Amino acid sequence: MSDTDSWGIEFSGNSYKLLKNESDAPTHLPNDDSNTHDLQNGVSVSGSTVHFSPCWGSPGDSDMSITLSADGGHSETVTIAQHTGFIQ
Hints:
By secondary structure, this protein is mainly β. The chain has strands at 7-12, 15-20, 23-24, 36-38, 43-46, 50-52, 64-70, 75-80. The two termini are 17 Å apart.
């Protein structure tokens, strides 16, 4: 994920959006008409904004967790590992 710009994802309720250099990206997510992507009805996401370093794709000095929840109580947590950006 080497680039001269920092990229990130901002999570909010039932949507997320692509960021470039900590602001709304002029680039759209793949197969979308906008930099914001709405999740399916009944699915929500909790987590903060994740920024990846331009050179290594690191989210910083600590792991980042994002939890997806669906109506009915099922949820899954995705962890982005510190320093490496590895998604677990």
